[in-house]
Design goal:
The complex is a heterodimer.
Chain A (H helix, E strand, L loop, with lengths): L17 H12 L2 H4 L15 H22 L1 H4 L3 H30 L8 H23 L4 H16 L11 H30 L20
Chain B lengths: L3 H10 L7 E4 L2 E4 H19 L10
Antiparallel strand pairs in B: 1-2
């Protein structure tokens, strides 16, 4: 009986193939207790550490309310009471998403959260922020009112001036709607997922060290 | 009759009419946006300064 067949035996993962290689690499980078920890460092007991998960919660509400709007369509969200409610829910969840994200950004900037090999975590967060601005912009263009027409006409000149008007045309309603409900949410969602996995891998960034101390990692960060 | 406080708060947050804008050189910002930014700064400072309730499961 081989080691693989013995119940309870510690089996070395020596399987070949790309799936096994990906599995070994994923488990090495993010073992289960690191991916889903049940404790957090003591320095996390501060309200400023709450704004990341608040941003995530608002993002999920925006995705959910946006999915309901997509299923029911504009004739529903413009005319019925429940449609107005979900339309407003989508707007206000995005307002909170942007506000929480900016406060999260301020907090991480002032604690220099790119320390401890966390540069890519910082960069994915910054790019997700830029992608969120694009998503909000195309959302304004999808309102189907005078506001959206005004914004489309004003912004086309800026986009033409930087040479991308032929590929990203705010006057093209169908194209803007597809960017808003397919491409940009996918980009922002993938960036947020990558951001969260990097946070799990490197751990929550500790506060800046006090003057005179020589370390900024009070907790062990393997 | 609206109170003074109601009247003072109603003007900056009324989004159903023409916006109120502040100008400072090349910088122009609506009062509504300025109020939102001020609220965000207040929330940020509160998050930094207010004590967090101690919970279980912290190393």
């Amino acid at each position: 009986m081989s080691a693989r067949e013995q119940p309870g035996a510690t089996e070395p993962d020596e399987a070949s193939g790309w799936t096994a290689a990906v599995r070994r690499r994923a488990v090495r980078a993010l073992p289960p207790d690191k991916l889903l920890p049940d404790t957090q460092p003591r320095y996390m007991a501060s309200w400023i550490y709450v704004f990341g998960v608040l941003t995530l919660a608002a993002f999920l509400v925006a995705l959910g309310s946006g999915a309901v709007l997509a299923i029911q369509g504009p004739a529903w969200w413009h005319t019925s009471g429940i449609g107005h409610f979900f339309n407003s829910l989508h707007l206000w969840s995005v307002e909170l998403f942007m506000a929480f994200m900016v406060i999260h950004l301020w907090g991480k900037f002032f604690m220099a959260a790119w320390r401890g090999r966390r540069a890519l975590t910082w960069i994915t967060g910054a790019v997700a922020f830029l992608g969120s601005i694009g998503t909000a912009f195309t959302g304004y263009l999808a309102q189907q009112n005078l506001d959206s027409q005004w914004i489309a006409v004003e912004s086309k000149d800026a986009l033409n001036a930087v040479g991308i008007g032929a590929y990203f045309d705010p006057m093209n309603f169908g194209q803007m709607l597809m960017w808003h409900i397919v491409l940009l949410p996918a980009v922002v969602g993938i960036l947020i997922a990558a951001h969260l996995l990097m946070v799990r891998r490197r751990g929550i960034v500790p506060p800046l060290p006090l003057p005179g101390t020589d370390t900024d990692e009070p907790e062990e960060q393997p | 009759m609206p109170t003074i406080a109601h009247a003072a708060l109603a003007a900056p947050v009324d989004l159903n009419g023409p916006g109120h804008y502040l100008n400072w050189g090349v910088i122009q910002i609506s009062v509504a946006n300025l109020v939102v930014i001020a609220v965000m700064v207040v929330v940020f400072l509160a998050a930094v300064l207010l004590p967090f309730p101690k919970g279980r499961g912290r190393k």
